[in-house]
């Protein structure tokens, strides 16, 4: 690992200013559970020379819930989100998604901001430099993507463009189904809010230099909303999703009045299956409706050479998530 | 018949349990010496290249760098090799042969400096075409990994007894299938580590992470050209081995040579990533298997062609291949066998021993095919096994002498388990969840008989306070041998397990020992310990006889006392006896000495597979229950059971631990684990992506022991824990078949493989390549292969 400067920020403004410092390649460090691994593996062609520690900014780890909804600071740890009483009571899929991440040790240090902004897990992108040199790719500014013609079993089936790595964050999937808004703050007091799925682009995130995720806001749940988060992995724990689905369904008198179906690990951002949501709204939810919606949800999938299996897999997870939400 | 023991057979806690649990156990990487330097290895980024230049000068100019060595600084000793000379340099010269092959090593004041120095070493390569697939490697005109190995053939075994070809013609049913297994990893948690200290007297002191310290002792002396007695090998606690820490590796050599050059102690601890991409793997195997049966299920003939990918070097691959071939003769009676094995070089990580050593690959094929045959013949999988099960007193066609065997008992036990489970198992709860049960059996060895030194030895020192110190050259790599050996000593001396202090390995005083492989320690070293303890007992009995005015033969040692057998009150405490022996007259030094290896057994021939490999063979049957999610392809292992014959268990709790660990390991090998490579590079060199099962993937494992005693084994004990790994994969694969009707002839069976296979459906297709009738011939194999494409 190359040496770097390390600064403990004490305010958001200071952190943003440091990160935007001209001439430096700075990166924010929250729990470090993703960043330090990436640095040790030497995956960046131009490794950072400055790390700005966010953990020293007071108050950024608050979890606050009231009638206006939920507000979670970027430094809230996944372990705290998973066991937060209000989150478990009112936004259970957010808690479940946080609990589904990695292992207890990692959840004890990993933060929400870091989980949303973590690097993709594409194994070409992540190939450690120490094992014979890192692999150049489009996402690292290289000319092409070696994955498309290689082993794509864990890559995108939706919305890939140039890069086919999938968004690895579990919390982003649940948050997208809860209509969550991400609060971004940048240098000079700049501030903007975006729906969580709009934070991601096929080659990275929309974050400008110096910009940070400072909080996530989640509106209060509809009274009759029911939800489920399902994550399919190859190994039971400590594994990224091959496909995950967050479903949130509002039922009034047996009729679906609103629905969110969000698929994770299928594209560069949490993928909202809008047509499938529309298909559910206005009717009763039963097994047939679930099967049909799942069919519609995957209709537009464009698998790569090596990941066609993800389509039927995702279809059954969508169907199960809808049915699980009914019981939830 | 089982006897009553005090220290044998129970559930005694491990002697190393507390220090390990408390974090006090020191592993090699924890050790440091004053003035110690840190070493790192530079590794090839290319799978196959000629070394044109290795310029270390720029690295030497970096402040803090004390020495840099390359292949040219070595005596070019070539390591490895059984049955023929080795071919693995500790630092490459002339060529590199896989991504990860070591090219140079640096010693510096700290790890970071060493790491930076690596980047300054200027290596010029001439890239050569790599061979990355064993079949391509064997094709005419393929580049050669080693110039002296035409066709990239590393070793061949051709075992034949009876006449398989002729026998197939007499069979009612013959079938042919092709199987494939994946390259997998040992998965030990402690990475390779070495600490070496050279002094002016010409002595090298070395601490390593070694299952078999005396391998390193010998190779170190040869590689450095110093007398063996000038090498002092010490062994700290070991964090797992599973066959992957037998050999001496490049880091061991480099630590020693760098210490010689710098006159400072040098420590090298490799990263877990380096372990995963630059050290050893299990041989992946391609197995073409034809078996012939009579209608009643009698196994008549077996014909196998095995191709094992050896990777870049020879290592101990001849033994691996020999085991793959010969274990087609066990655990069932078969009168006609032909097994042709070929180990092939490729430009990938070298393959070596791993739990089960070659046998899991072939027995997966053979057990699954046996089940396929049973189905076609309308026989129960347990019946066909009982029909063919080997029995004590049998000698296999290649010469394995089966002196004790509880295989049939384990099968009967398994029958009860299967019946019980079938009764307990609810009907499939959801339409997409299918449950199934499978069985498979195994036979395994209790220590391989090898040419050369094969004897284990033990020393026991009796302390003044009536406690004893025990040392052997067999190391505890987690399997619990320190405890088992201590129990044996305690039993013979009639003292308690607490009274035995198991000492560490130190070649200065601990007798020569082959080490830990092939499930040899309990059986072979156990006997040596028993002898050593008997030697102590005899010496003490002589003293006690005088004190008690009795015949030595009439004395009994039990419960920390020595007494006259028929008059228990006429005796004295063990500690008091020791003191009397040491203090009176000239005073005695009570040291017990024992050494043992099975005698009079026919040495095995690696090229023909003939000979008796071991003094005893263990047996068992594995039962597995799975639930397959037919939509997602995910297989959940619900429970496992092992009914086994390890002779007399020395420690039931340790035996269960071994059986559980081995079984759960097999879950990973069947469903998740494989090394993913791209042009010779390992894409999943981390425990995140190399998916070994975790505790949450584990399932309950029921264990039942048969009542068998091996006459040669210490207190009747034989192998346990390695053999069972042989039967896990086939039991799981049969269980999956029982659930969804598909035979998987390639592992691992990942979710996507299952989904694809179920998509293609129809078991009928799976059996398309099965041969029926007596006219099946080897030469029809080609179309068998193309039809085999159906299987997953
Ligand atoms: C073994 C393992 C298994 C894992 N399994 C899963 C899994 O199953 N599901 C899953 O979702 N994740 C998984 N992860 C990823 C893990 O969740 C992330 O490492 C963690 O959430 C990152 O949080 P952190 O606070 O440690 O971030 P850091 O490592 O500190 O930062 C990660 C990245 O985000 C940036 N960053 C951090 N905070 C901010 C912020 N506030 N604003 C802008 N940028 C920021 C950093 O600059 C860095 O690039 C796994 C990780 C490991 C190591
Ligand atoms: S999929 Fe994206 S991250 Fe992976 S290699 Fe291609 S461009 Fe790089």
Secondary-structure topology with pairs:
The complex is a heterodimer of chains A (328) and B (792).
Chain A: E1 5-8, H1 12-19, E2 26-29, H2 35-41, E3 50-53, E4 63-66, E5 69-73, H3 78-83, H4 85-90, H5 92-99, H6 104-109, H7 112-117, H8 170-177, E6 181-185, E7 191-195, E8 200-201, E9 204-205, E10 212-218, E11 225-232, E12 243-252, E13 255-264, E14 271-272, H9 274-280, H10 287-299, H11 310-327
Parallel strand pairs in A: 1-3, 2-3
Antiparallel strand pairs in A: 4-5, 5-10, 6-7, 6-10, 8-9, 11-12, 12-13, 13-14
Helix pairs in contact in A: 5-8, 9-10, 10-11
Chain B: H1 17-21, E1 37-43, E2 49-55, H2 57-60, E3 65-70, E4 78-79, E5 88-89, E6 95-96, E7 102-108, H3 111-120, E8 122-127, H4 134-138, E9 153-161, H5 164-170, E10 173-180, E11 193-198, E12 204-208, H6 213-224, E13 231-235, H7 250-262, E14 266-269, H8 272-278, E15 281-282, E16 285-293, E17 299-311, H9 317-326, E18 336-345, E19 351-352, H10 359-377, H11 381-388, H12 407-424, E20 433-445, E21 456-462, E22 468-472, H13 481-493, E23 500-502, E24 505-506, H14 521-548, E25 555-558, E26 561-564, E27 567-573, H15 574-583, E28 591-596, E29 617-629, E30 635-645, H16 652-671, E31 677-678, E32 681-682, E33 701-705, H17 725-740, H18 751-760, H19 763-766, H20 781-787
The structure holds flavin-adenine dinucleotide (FAD) and iron/sulfur cluster (SF4).
Flavin-adenine dinucleotide (FAD) binds next to strand 2, helix 2, helix 6, helix 7 and strand 10 of chain A.
Short description:
The complex is a heterodimer of chains A (328) and B (792). Chain A is of the alpha+beta class.
What does this structure look like?
- The complex is a heterodimer of chains A (328) and B (792).
- Chain A has a single domain, classed as 2-Layer Sandwich (Uridine Diphospho-n-acetylenolpyruvylglucosamine Reductase, domain 3), CATH 3.30.465.10.
- Chain A is 28% helix and 22% strand.
- Chain A has helices at residues 12-19, 35-41, 78-83, 85-90, 92-99, 104-109, 112-117, 170-177, 274-280, 287-299, 310-327; strands at 5-8, 26-29, 50-53, 63-66, 69-73, 181-185, 191-195, 200-201, 204-205, 212-218, 225-232, 243-252, 255-264, 271-272.
- Chain A has a five-stranded antiparallel β-sheet. A four-stranded antiparallel β-sheet of chain A has the order 11-12-13-14, with helices on both faces. In chain A, strands 1-3-2 form a three-stranded parallel β-sheet, with helices on one face.
- The longest helix of chain A has 18 residues, at 310-327.
- Chain B is of the alpha+beta class.
- Chain B has three domains: 17-24 and 455-596, Aldehyde Oxidoreductase, domain 4 (2-Layer Sandwich); 31-128 and 190-239 and 245-278, Aldehyde oxidase/xanthine dehydrogenase, a/b hammerhead (Aldehyde Oxidoreductase, domain 3, Alpha-Beta Complex), CATH 3.90.1170.50; 354-448 and 611-790, Aldehyde Oxidoreductase, domain 4 (2-Layer Sandwich), CATH 3.30.365.
- In chain B, 29% of the residues lie in helices and 25% in strands.
- Chain B contains 20 helices and 33 strands.
- Chain B has an eight-stranded mixed β-sheet, sandwiched between helices. Chain B has a five-stranded mixed β-sheet with strand order 9-18-17-16-10, sandwiched between helices.
- In chain B, β17 (299-311), α9 (317-326) and β18 (336-345) form a beta-alpha-beta unit.
- The longest helix of chain B is centred in the C-terminal third of the chain and has 28 residues, at 521-548.
- The relative contact order of chain B is 0.13.
- The interface between A and B is medium-sized, with 25 and 37 residues.
- Bound molecules: flavin-adenine dinucleotide (FAD) and iron/sulfur cluster.
- Iron/sulfur cluster is lined by residues 120, 122, 124-125, 137-139, 145-147, 155, 163-165 of chain A.
